[in-house]
Amino acid sequence: MTPNLTYVIVIGVLVAAGVTLLLERSLTRVLMGVILLGNGANLLLLTGGQAGGPPIVGTTPQEEMSDPLPQAMILTAIVITLGMTAFLLALAYRSWHLNGHDEVQDDVEDRRIMDLAERDEGPGDADAGSGDDDDDDDPTGGNRPVATTADAGRTG
Amino acid sequence: MTYLVPLPVVMPLLGAALTLLLLGRPRAQRWVSLTVLTATVAVAATLLVRSSMDGPLVVEVGGWVAPLGIVLVADQLAALMLVVSASVTLCVLVYSIGQGMADGSEETPLSVYHPTYLVLTAGVCNAFLSGDLFNLYVGFEILLVASYVLLTLGSTETRIRAGTTYVVVSLLSSVIFLIAIGLVYASTGTLNLAQLVDRLDALPDDLRLLLQGMLLLAFGIKAAVFPLSAWLPDSYPTAPAPVTAVFAGLLTKVGVYAIIRTETLLFPGGRTATLLLVTAVLTMVVGILGAVAQSDIKRLLSFTLISHIGYMLFGVGLTSSLGLSAAIFYVVHHITIQTTLFLAAGLVERRGGSTAMDRLGGLARLSPLLAVLFFVPALNLAGIPPFSGFLGKLGLVQAGIDDGGPLAWILVVGGLLTSLLTLYAVARVWNLAFWRAPHPDMPAGDDAEQAARTDGAVEPDEGTAGQSGAVLPKLMIAPTIALVAFGLALTVVAGPLFELSTDAADDLLRRTPYVDAVFPGGAP
Amino acid sequence: MLALVAVHALTAVIAPALVRLWGRNALYLVALVPGATLVWALTHTAGVRSGDPVVETVPWVPQLGLELALRMGTLSWLMVVLVGGVGALVLAYSARYFRNDDPGLGRFAAVFVAFAGAMLGLAVSDDLLLLYVFWELTTVFSYLLIGSDPAKRASRRAAMQALLVTTLGGLAMLAGFVMLGQHAGTYRWSEIAGNLPGGGYLTVAALLILLGALSKSAIFPFSFWLPGAMAAPTPVSAYLHAAAMVKAGVFLVALLGPALAAAAPWRPVLLATGLLTMFLGGWAALRQVDLKLLLAYGTVSQLGLLMVILGAGTRDTALAGAAMVLAHALFKATLFLTVGVIDHTAGTRDLRELSGLGRRAPALAVVAGLAAASMAGLPPMAGFVAKEAAVEALLHGGVVDLVVLAGVLLGSVLTVAYTLRFLWGAFADKPGIEATEAKPLSWPFLAPTAVLALAGVAVGLLAPAVDRLLTPYADLYPSAEPGYHLALWHGLTPALGLSALAVAGGLGLFHLLRRETVRASLRLPFDGAAGYQKLIAGVDRLAVELTGATQRGSLPFYLGVILVVLVLLPGGALLAGAPWSGGFHLWDTPLQAVAGAVVVVAAVMAACALRRLTAMILVGVAGYGIALMFILHGAPDLALTQFLVETVTIVMFVLVLRRLPVKFSERPIRASRRGRVAIGVAVGAVTAGMAYVAAGARVAEPVSVGFPDEAVSYGGGKNVVNVTLVDIRAWDTMGEIAVLVVAATGVASLIFRRARDLDRRGDIPGGGRTETARPRWLTTGATARAQSVILQVVTRLLFHAIVLFSIYLLFSGHNAPGGGFAAGLVAGLALAVRYLAGGRTELNGAAPVDAGVVLGAGLFVAVGTGVAAMLLGGEFLQSALLDFHLPVLGHIHFVTSVFFDVGVYLIVVGLVLDILRSLGAEMDRQQETEGGAEVREKELV
């Protein structure tokens, strides 16, 4: 089997365009990227089987038939992509409904930690970490005097 | 016996169909789900017993002889995975039912929840059983699409945002997997794993490396291997507690399973062993440092999840029998423990009103039972002996030291450090959320004073359970207790379990048991 | 022995209940458990003394060399006696130390007895891994006990500090154990000892193990955690941090010493760190004003001494070390308990506030005095006997030993000085300080302390007996000459003289340091705690920096990372050496190039489009182009399905895009365009390259060559692709329809956010409400053509024809292009047309069922077909060919897989119906109920 150069080129372009769209913020574009990528992958599956006549017994002689197995796989993949498309569209709509746009937002919690990193701070409430010893906790919590253990830490 | 093999997939799917037909009748749905999953556990257990006794069980679906049709193979590894995952899903189901009922909202998307949850189970089981590369892809798709739906349940703003990240990353991984399949088929002309053994061996080394790389990439994303892991902590923690729990326990492990399966069966000889080991140590260390940086319990647990995937890769990368069997043992342990911890985190959220550590406190006194339910699996996760986490880690350290190479030593050190940092991370949770004086914002709860009066009881007897029952529904506590007990049982039966995982590892490394089972008359 | 450990565990479980029942008196009951341990050990004394260890083995995880192998030799016996005896006494003491209403009492009892069990297990483990298990358990229990008062930040912090430091050492030790075990092929110490590796391997292993021992026993540079651990209640300090847990490291050194002393680093490390710790600890003890901390630093100092003696590694030092372990446990536990009593009676343990307590509580003073005498090494106490033995043993050694001896004597001077400081601080009358008020002492409270103190005296007086008990351990060291024997009186030896000198020196030092000015000038050069804090802060900072750098929270970033990995790894493999086949063909037919060009142009333009609708149309064009390529490839089924799917996709897009803004937002498009395009091109190139290489590499015949024959004979159909879908690979298809079902459910769950709405989505009466809402809906304009009555009529007419056609496609699919998917999509399109023409009412009229039910039914039919085959004795999803005659229709050739295809059909219809209901009808309804104004407002934002 030799590669079909047309397929190879189309695959490359579909994937390139798909990836470019995938890296966007707008969910609609991302979805379009997914569709293009899916098409590229399907075409790639197709290159795994030889071309020929429709694989229908009686219509095409067996040796001239195109390979049916990749076709079955592609069919499955196409339909799965359809389901995904529907789901992503619903997601895009819901996102728009909630936020007024369909752009993918950055994670808030990650942003918080990146800010900490920029300010050169630790995770903050680390009980074992640095920081002063002032007992910010409920002072009524203790019921037995534990003398000067804080002192102990310093004199080591 | 082979008629049992498809059932772990078929039964949940039938159950999903039934629950869809029973839309709007939550009670009937619940019974269908419970019945189906209980039956799945039973079938899986039978499969495990039979496959240990008679070797891998193979079914040619539809009667189509391999390699024409699709084969399902229940070898020891697959059966073991089935048993653990089915048990865990069952426990989580009960928990989620408890949560739903307690919320008094029969109308929370429970009618969507049951069919989706069952399909998720079917997908996981399918992935474990599949003996066909494309069918493995389908299995992944099933569980992924179900996970998309579960993650976005309720469609709140955070879940939509987190869901988007998760869905898009997963879609990319699916495309990569599909491309990999296309490449494999193009170069070998088959999809049957057992047949691929020979055909891949016949390919030029570099092409095989290429195929291996693509598959590793696809599975690596699903398994959350650094640097492909960053999506996980952003998405998992936002889901409802039981959903996060089942995701954390199972979904990444399906990726790990796929890595184990393909690395041992299709690409033996360890050409990517170095790569695996390097990513393993990075995953461990970067992951656990991520956990240290967090201030929210669920997020922290998500990072430990990533980190401990590194342990499993460590075992796979060593390519020795001991390493592999320890990795398998670790997978079983980690499925159980990580799920348990997320369930416990769900209980914390319910009791304390949050999982942010700076808004929690005093839980050890407020709810001693909850304290035990968190503390024991947390120590287990940190690899404190005698728990199963320690045993798995011990096996890995032994295998690493046996290996003796410089990289293996780096991994041993990295693994032990990770274990220490895990302890640091969970101990911080304990210090802040459980020990510190209660946060003023926390819901007081009627049991607070009672609990304080009767002091910190350690044993989970009905006295304390009834007491916290005012806040924590029994149906949520019971499955958590069951999973904690299951985790402890792993320690007790560690001997037989390690024997099983060693057998499974040896079979994997020999490759012939799998191939012979699929092609009794020799590979075509 | 296992049974004893189990009893401890069990008691731990029920202890809280006992405490709830009987209050603090329950501790007496709990004390019986370690007491039983003591009795059990004593009953085995004779056997152990005659060199006949008690052995017990139960398998656990043989693959890891981990077994419950227990072995009680002399050294273990000594530890068991201490653990049991001191444990029982401290528990008895605790029964009066705590108040009945102490909230943490139940937990204390449980964790304490659990700790005693772990310590017992540690002492008798023969399997090194098992030893590690108990080792870590003591760490964890100690963590819980230090945090007894968790509302205090200092207390929590101290607990964490002890946990991390000792676990760090423990993990290193584990690695050392594994090195030894993997080399010897066993983990039983009794077997490893005779099969040690050599050279650098042993050195590394020994160092790692030492790390564990030093951290556990608070030896420099790990000393700092122990004073911090004094946050624990005093009974805990007395037991864990004086008598038992901190002895674990010492015990380990003593246990492994006979064999590992041969390792290069063993002696130097132990001697150096031990001496250093002894000085630093003693020095620090002299500065303390809190009696408990004074004792804590004293303990640190004495642990250093123990390490030195046991690390010296000769028979006589070993004997001295064992005796000292015993002596130290007795006097140090006594002194801690004394501090607890003082704390209770006087309400403080600050020596600046205490005065005249000796006269008010003379009994207590006597008890403390006995223990203090032992600590200072005065005859006839146990401490004296042990120290004499040590001095004597070192005196006869080489140069190193003499240096060490000098160090030990210096340490003794410090010890005597801080002992005096303790006694003075606790009991003396101090001028200028008001005499301390003291509550009367109850005997039950004092008794356990007194018993411990008297035991110290007894050991001293019975030195020869103790000697006989301990020599079997010492004899594990090879020794040429007849060894030393413990005794109270050896005559006027040099050792005695040196001891006396040390005592005198101590007295002098104490008097020197009573002056406040001198004491203040004693500053320690080292601060281990600060190092720990720095390290932890460093880890925290590193964690934040690393996480901030890798966890960017941005989806494009994550995708970019994945894609870059794809370009680097498989792409790298591609460039490095993948076999580029020489041969290729441009196309199968030139038309492919034409279709390909269409796809390429459409895809590139779609990537650049700024308007949603344009982009969507271009993507659609690319899709149709692909369908064309499918036809040219010889895949009509694919082409048909692709065509239909593309159309349904466009319908869906239109439904959703009518709500979204016309243009994509500008913000992120420009900023990083080049980067994105670069990644896109690279990934595209790599993928194309891989496709080229893979397709050129095929040599084997594909499995599908057998499909056509089998499809006809076994699958009963001529359309090979369809037979593949519904029969050969029906299992895939089953999974695929499960995906569809869930996707449909997911769409509904996203759009209908509440289940109540979801359940109603099939209701035809829903149309009733549309009537009132219709005018507003029409004003949206986009679907104004719905007004067209003619269109509605036409579509109604067409509808049935299309549905019929779809059913034809369904059944003919087995032999000609078509099948369940295509047929279902056609039927779905028919529904779409009805909806587009007439809105919700029309849709409900056309399909008056709940989409969920259609989906469920379809899944049920498809999976049920498979199950039925199984019930009839075939494999799951096995099909059967049925040929029979019907009166009117004539010969019927029927394949059961058609049922499966019917299931597929239903699911696809259900999916489209669901999409129309959610993305179409429900979105309309939400629009209406929310009112246009609000939506417009959002659009402006």
TrEMBL record, chain A:
One of its GO terms (cellular component) is plasma membrane. It comes from the Bacteria. The chain crosses the membrane at residues 6-23, 30-52, 72-93. It is found in: Cell membrane. InterPro entries: CPA3_antiporter_subunitC, NUOK/Mnh_C1-like. The keyword Coiled coil does not apply. Its main location: membrane. It is a multi-pass membrane protein. Keywords: Cell membrane, Membrane, Transmembrane, Transmembrane helix. Pfam families: Oxidored_q2 (PF00420). The keyword Transmembrane helix applies. Residues 114-156 are annotated as: Disordered. Residues 130-139 have a biased composition (Acidic residues). Belongs to the CPA3 antiporters (TC 2.A.63) subunit C family. PANTHER family: ANTIPORTER SUBUNIT MNHC2-RELATED. This is Multicomponent Na+:H+ antiporter subunit C.
Automatic annotation (TrEMBL), chain B:
It is a multi-pass membrane protein. Residues 444-465 are annotated as: Disordered. GO terms for biological process: ATP synthesis coupled electron transport. It comes from the Bacteria. One of its GO terms (cellular component) is plasma membrane. Its main location: membrane. It is found in: Cell membrane; Membrane. GO terms for molecular function: NADH dehydrogenase (ubiquinone) activity. The chain crosses the membrane at residues 6-24, 31-49, 77-98, 110-129, 135-154, 166-187, 207-232, 239-260, 272-293, 300-321, 327-348, 369-387, 407-427, 475-498. Residues 130-418 form the NADH:quinone oxidoreductase/Mrp antiporter transmembrane domain. InterPro entries: CPA3_Na-H_Antiporter_D, NADH_UbQ_OxRdtase, ND/Mrp_TM. Keywords: Cell membrane, Membrane, Transmembrane, Transmembrane helix. It holds the Pfam family Proton_antipo_M. Belongs to the CPA3 antiporters (TC 2.A.63) subunit D family. NCBIfam families: PRK12665.1. This is Multicomponent Na+:H+ antiporter subunit D. It comes from Micromonospora phaseoli. The lineage of its organism: Bacteria, Bacillati, Actinomycetota, Actinomycetes, Micromonosporales.
Automatic annotation (TrEMBL), chain C:
Residues 63-108 form the NADH-Ubiquinone oxidoreductase (complex I) chain 5 N-terminal domain. One of its GO terms (molecular function) is antiporter activity. InterPro entries: CPA3_Na-H_Antiporter_A, MnhB, MrpA_C/MbhD, MrpA_C/MbhE, ND/Mrp_TM, Proton_antipo_N. GO terms for biological process: monoatomic ion transport. Signal peptide: none annotated. The chain crosses the membrane at residues 74-93, 105-123, 129-146, 158-180, 200-226, 238-263, 269-286, 293-312, 318-342, 363-382, 402-424, 445-466, 486-513, 557-578, 590-608, 615-632, 638-657, 677-695, 733-752, 793-811, 817-837, 849-872, 892-916. It comes from the Bacteria. It is found in: Cell membrane; Membrane. Keywords: Antiport, Cell membrane, Ion transport, Membrane, Transmembrane, Transmembrane helix, Transport. Residues 673-755 form the MrpA C-terminal/MbhE domain. Coiled coil: none annotated. Residues 790-913 form the Na+/H+ antiporter MnhB subunit-related protein domain. The keyword Membrane applies. Its main location: membrane. Residues 125-409 form the NADH:quinone oxidoreductase/Mrp antiporter transmembrane domain. GO terms for cellular component: plasma membrane. It is a multi-pass membrane protein. Residues 598-661 form the MrpA C-terminal/MbhD domain. This is Multicomponent Na+:H+ antiporter subunit A.
